[in-house]
Amino acid sequence: MAGFKLLSLLLTLVLVGCSGGGSPEALTGYIEAEYVYISALETGWITASAVREGDRVSPGQVLLTLDSERQTLELNEATQRAVQAQAQNRDLRSGARPEELTRLDAQLAEAKSALRLAAIELRRLRGLRSKGAVSEAALDKADAEYRASKARVESATAAISVAKLPARQEAVLAAKAAAEAASAVQAKAQWRLDQRQLTARQAGLVTAVYYRQGEQLPAGSPALALLPDDGLKVRFFVPQSRAVEFSPGTAVGIRQDGSADTIRATVSYLAEQVEFTPPVIYSVANREKLVFMVEARLPAHSQLHAGQPVDVELL
């Protein structure tokens, strides 16, 4: 009886040693996931959670929402400052206001009227002076008044021309820069408000939710983990004698236990340095102690799971 048990044990060991997990060329590997962790730039209270573990999400889908009262107030303030800066910029470019121009036009009309009266008085006194009816001093006074009235007309005309001009070039450039800076601050405030909604950047599967509605999410802490549709890869180790067969771009076949289907994958990484065989994959069929780590990218929706052992072979 003891001899029969010993024979059975030896037979089992032989079968295990010969199986090698599939075909003689098959290598042992395991599935690894590259998760995307969704976090917030600023801390906040979660006001709404839109997904749970196991939900599939699409790009742009809202995952959760944070409170946004402070960001809304900052946006309102930035908007008002931008409106103010833009108005000042337009004001400097447009010159005086219509009311100011109206006042200057009235002053010009008054100066022209005074000039006409001074011209009439000057001509009258010149006629009288030729007849000796007035003194030379009176004529000089009338001439001085005419010249003063003419200067007031020229001054009023120049004031209107200046009022219609924009501000100095330096002041205009400064106002323009202030308006652009205010608009940038407004855009930044809008962006911060938009960040209070965390959205998916790519399609995938929600694998873990760490914070839920009513909890405070610290800045930079993952709120949930997302596995992209193309986020799975297979990692395996090849003997150094076969490393040249698995250069990046090489197609390999992946088989999982209990399935006869072969999933096609593409080698994406071959380690630069050799290492010792990890004990977890050491077997009778793989006695070489120096191996290279290889990673192959799996296609989207491959229906495999992280940590799952698989067989890998060249196609």
TrEMBL record:
Its main location: other. Residues 68-159 form a coiled coil. Pfam families: HH_MFP_RND. PROSITE patterns: PROKAR_LIPOPROTEIN (PS51257). Residues 1-21 form the signal peptide. It is found in: Cell envelope. InterPro entries: MdtA-like_HH (IPR058624), UPF0194_transport (IPR050465). Gene3D superfamilies: 2.40.30.170, 2.40.50.100, Helix hairpin bin (1.10.287.470). The keyword Signal applies. Residues 101-165 form the Multidrug resistance protein MdtA-like alpha-helical hairpin domain. This is HlyD family efflux transporter periplasmic adaptor subunit.
